[in-house]
Give the backbone structure.
Amino acid sequence: MQTPVEDVSNKILSKQIDKHDAMRLFQSLDKESQLQVLAIVRGAERLAPANAGKGATRPLKALDQRDLTDEHRAWIAALVEKYDRFVPKSKANVLEHQVHFVDQRRAFHLLKDLKKLHFQITYTQADGAYVHDADGNKYIDISGDMGVNLFGHRPPFLIEAVKHSLDQGIPLVGYSDMIFQACKLFCEITGHERALFTQSGTEAVMFAVRIARAATGRKKIVLFDGAYHGLSDAVAATRDLAGNSFPLAPGILQESADQIIVLDYGDMAALDTIERMAGEIATVLVEPVQSRHPYKKPVEFLKALRQLTIEKDIPLIFDEMITGFRVCHRGAQGMFGIQADMATYGKIPGGGLPTGVIAGAAKYMDLVDGGTWRFDDDSMPSSKRTGMAGTHSQNPLKIAAALAVLGEIKRRSDEPAPDGTCACFQQELNRKTTYLADTLNAFFREQRLPVVIDTFGSLFRFRFVDSYWGVTEALFFILLRMEGVETNIQGNCFLTTAHTDADIEAVIAGVKTSMSTLKGSGFFLEAEPEPVQKAAPPPEATVSAIQRSGHAPGNEIERLRALLAADLALAEDAGEGK
């Protein structure tokens, strides 16, 4: 595993992250590590070839709506005709049923120039790694049903469990042996003390925040810019350029947003804010690896956050909707060696049925049901409890699915490796995802395409550098579908245990063909060089001298930060004579 210094240095030098994220990662390091990164970056620049950064090697720029020419529009018109022949029934279904069917995702990422291509496919079947549509097309599915699938579509063990539960009826009131087993197994796998089921991931987060507020008597919620925690009003806020919180969407009250503090993820300065406002903060809610930014893995920041929340008696909640059970059986908490007070889960544990889970320390979970007590003594439930309900929270069908999925995870995790050691089956899946990403990232660099695949475990995401959902990105996903690969328009993609090596090679081939088509059709342009602000001359004390001294004054670090910022910009323009 790379050290933080190696990780940050490699990301900066490979241009896998933009300048702002590079500076944020750099500033999250301690002073000694910052000096080491600076030395590595500057050393690499000195060793770079003389023509590095010239037009021949500068990444291209993805074309967006403002760049469209008549030739581009003619190309899109021809694609529309071809696409209409490819999925005519799916398109007709949308037009026919939109009057009555409300789809919250339909307008997502809608571009006027591509409106005729913007509709969802009607599926007729899903099995293993594949989905089939109403027009008879078969696709390799890398959407993962938004992170739900770990074992592919319709795994036999899951179908059998749900059918068995259905045969027994669907009583929603009272206990079942399955709910006892499922909660016990959930705690055994994740390392938490107690667990409860909710009806969705959004609901799990909403109730976890309520538990934290009940436990502390405080109001404020801290979350981090770039994270996604569902659509509960309790967490649906973002911030403006001045740092003020405001509602994420119309209909959400400003009064709700006023209770939310949005901070920079991975920025150690955020810890100062938390420490300063500790007396007002009910909980810190964190997506340990942000599903929209998988390249952000600030482990040292998370460890410092964990220590600070312990010191200030602030409940720490990990949102493991995406990371839970995917990277390893204990999720990001297990991979990073950090135990949160509570964690929220969804997607994978439900096996495709709607579910959410809150798991955590008994001191917090007891606020729901009063904890444990006996019938043959004077013990009573805790007097301090918060409200929670949900008709389908313990629906037998989903509990059966959850128990089957958890049992399969445990079974595969307990299987010994060929050499007799313990094997985590997710490791093989993670390696396949890394292979896919490394192969395609090498292709993108070779073709000068401004695209990077970011990964965390078997989650991967196509990121168009310095572009957010322009016409080129939208066309890429349409072309990829026509190559027989189904993705998720919201961005996150996943491999499952059902994907074979042949499937992965087919995905790689489809991506290469789609990108090459776009490049050949003029949807990637030569990037205009940006003017660069010259940095102030470096201080007299060199990096090596500071390292030898074992310390660096605060103002020295600030100068080095400014120098690194200039280095990051100049690295793109080396040899341009600027």
Q: What stands out?
A: Residues 425-446 form the longest helix (22 residues).
